[in-house]
Design goal:
- The chain is an alpha/beta fold.
- The protein is built from 11 helices and 14 strands.
- β9 (212-216), α7 (220-231) and β10 form a beta-alpha-beta unit.
């Protein structure tokens, strides 16, 4: 994937003070919204064709155990309701909402603009997708209960039933497929290094020797660093012990001089560089990864429905994927989104 080129003129974000304030707000919000019980039970009558969906789920489980292309281990799209969607639709009164785990401090992905905007309203690329899913399932784009979920709590939140799904720059990988189900990819990215412009670090290479690197706990970035240090592809002297609950916390550590570099998804790293003009992306992306919507492993009908929504989202040139990219990400990434658009989706088929 070719390198991202950042624009210099971005307003409102930058500096330790703004980042610290954003982190404090994120902590308060997370404590307020994550201490709730599980979402409604997904039990219910099985619709026609449910046996076929369950057979495909078995195929998905086997694929996760023998996984080479995790982005292809998902169910074919469908508009049919099943037990998971029916349970969401049957929630009473004001509780009839889609419960979604998101980030609220990832600039232009899922965040609250500190300089204005509608009070208390989350916005960004991921948030646009959430509203699209809610509109399709419940007929109202605002029928959403957002829950701020730290990076390392994305999978537990799904498994515990605290959320129906997670839309939070979450990479599809083989390890996670053993715990949750994913939609088809909705964004293509890769791991990159973020460091001060004045730093001698040049990328994911020997210049990270004797450097302290920050990653988010439970992230694919940390797993990659750990694996590469064991294999010798990363200098053994690289200190990867600094992990934080949320990706933005790494930027704060970098600004405070507590770490020398950050490793993160390139899409998120570009947004972090836009928040602070003293840092920049170093070198090319050194992995290829795809973001997906995560759900419970047995929520077959929800997985299928989200995949159908993604088909429509990609094809909608007026208010879909392209429009959302232009609105939120073209300012921090390339104007041409082709490098970030995932390939045509592939789905599991019964043998």
């Amino acid at each position: 994937m070719r390198a991202r080129h950042l624009r210099a003129r971005l307003k409102g974000w930058g500096g330790v003070g703004a980042m610290a304030a954003a982190c404090a707000l994120a902590l308060v919000f997370a404590l307020a919204v994550t201490c709730t019980g599980p979402v409604a039970s997904q039990a219910g009558a099985q619709p026609a064709g449910h046996r076929t969906a369950k057979a495909l789920t078995v195929d998905a489980a086997r694929a996760a155990d023998d996984c080479e292309a995790p982005e292809k281990q998902t169910l074919p799209p469908s508009r049919a309701d099943g037990p998971a969607i029916t349970a969401i639709k049957n929630r009473p009164g004001e509780k009839r909402k889609l419960v979604v785990g998101v980030d609220q401090n990832s600039f232009r992905w899922g965040y609250r603009d500190p300089n204005g905007g509608e009070s208390g309203r989350l916005e960004g690329f991921d948030i646009d997708l959430v509203h699209r899913i809610a509109e399709d399932i419940l007929g109202d784009p605002d029928a959403v209960q957002f829950k701020a979920i730290p990076t390392d709590q994305r999978i537990p939140a799904i498994q515990d039933g605290r959320v129906d799904l997670v839309v939070r720059t979450m990479t599809i990988n083989c390890s996670r497929l053993k715990d949750v189900a994913f939609s088809a990819p909705y964004f293509k990215t890769g791991q990159q290094v973020l460091a001060p412009k004045s730093s001698p670090v040049t990328g994911y290479d020997e210049t990270l020797a004797h450097r302290k690197v920050c990653t988010a706990k439970g992230s694919t970035a940390y797993a990659k660093l750990e694996e590469d240090r064991r294999s010798g592809d990363l200098p053994a002297s690289t200190d990867i012990s600094t992990t934080v609950p949320n990706q933005l916390d790494c930027l704060v550590r970098l600004q405070l001089g507590e770490v020398d570099a950050v490793v993160n998804d390139g899409a998120l790293a570009a947004s972090q560089a836009a928040q602070d003009p003293t840092v920049e992306l170093k070198g090319e992306a050194f992995t290829t990864e795809y973001y997906g919507v995560a759900m419970k492993k047995d929520a077959d009908d929800l997985v299928r429905r989200v995949n159908q929504i993604l088909v429509d989202f990609r094809q909608d040139t007026a208010t879909g994927w392209q429009a959302s990219y232009t609105k939120w990400l073209s300012a921090t990434m390339d104007d041409d989104p082709s490098a970030s658009r995932p390939p045509a989706p592939e789905y599991l088929r019964r043998s």
